[in-house]
Amino acid sequence: MYCLAGLGGNVDAIVQTTGEASKILAIDGCPLECAKKTLFQAGIDSFEHLEITSIGLEKGCTAVNEGNVAVVKAKALELLER
User: Fold this and answer.
1) What is the pLDDT of residues 42-54, one digit of tens each?
2) How far apart are CA 46 and CA 48, in angstroms?
């Protein structure tokens, strides 16, 4: 995990370190895609993206439980294995 706010704030060390990562997974909780847009704005365009509502979990309306966490984890692992 790394600091999305640091990317948005254009903190040089954070932008550099993030850009050098071997794999990046941006996770957004809604269709506004703030994490994805923040990465693009920082000049980082090589990453996987998971928008939670696309897998049937609605932000603010879905229970946080082991089953739903497992769904997100499975999808995240699938994306990172690409």
Assistant:
1) 999 999 999 999 9
2) 7
